[in-house]
Design brief:
The protein is an all-alpha fold. The chain has helices spanning about 5-25, 35-55, 65-85, 95-120, 130-150, 160-180. The chain is globular. The chain has 6 helices and no strands. The protein is about 75% helix and about 0% strand.
Length: about 180
């Protein structure tokens, strides 16, 4: 059986490399994103994945599904950072600070995944990639509802838990897509 821990680390390393390269290009310009804009960015990525899945993977711009899942991982971590720090009117952290925050939230989210994975008995391995897409879209819709309710929930988890779930579903998709390649 494949090692979920090692596969998660490998998929995350791929995402982190993209994040680090984009920091070199743009710096932490994403610090200006307000919560609703970040949620909409996640929606755009997930909606594009679903559109490509329905179209059989055919793309007009030459980028497939895998880069979009990588984007979901990275924007989910950005979301966790923004929740903890609030948004800014400009770049108020260094690239090094952004990477340290990335690593911290990635580590916390991986720890959550490992606990859940033990409880669920690696059920994610039997799921189809399109199920991860639909679950991510569901989590985005829930996040929008929580945002519309000013962050308040009665019995449900908060926005942070939804970001972590999106991140983990996207990592599972990356693992499955790269296993099949």
């Amino acid at each position: 059986m494949a090692d979920t821990n090692a596969q998660f680390d490998s998929a995350l390393a791929r995402c982190r490399a993209v994040f680090a390269d984009k920091l070199k290009d743009y710096g932490p310009s994403w610090r200006i994103l307000r919560p609703a804009a970040l949620t909409d960015q996640l929606f755009i990525k997930a909606k594009r994945i679903r559109t490509l899945e329905v179209a059989g993977g055919h793309t007009a711009v030459g980028e497939g599904i895998l880069p979009e899942f990588i984007g979901i991982v990275n924007y989910s971590i950005i979301g966790l950072i923004q929740l903890s720090k609030g948004y800014s009117d400009g770049k108020d952290i260094t690239n090094e600070e952004a990477l340290a925050l990335y690593d911290d939230y990635a580590s916390q989210t991986k720890a959550l995944m490992m606990r859940k994975n033990q409880d669920y008995g690696e059920a994610w391995r039997s799921m189809r990639v399109l199920s991860y897409t639909d679950l991510i879209l569901t989590k985005i819709q829930r996040t929008k509802e929580i945002e519309d309710n000013h962050g308040c929930t009665i019995v449900s988890e908060g926005i942070d838990a939804n970001y972590q779930d999106m991140l983990n579903y996207a990592i599972f998709a990356i693992i499955k897509l790269t296993e099949e390649a």
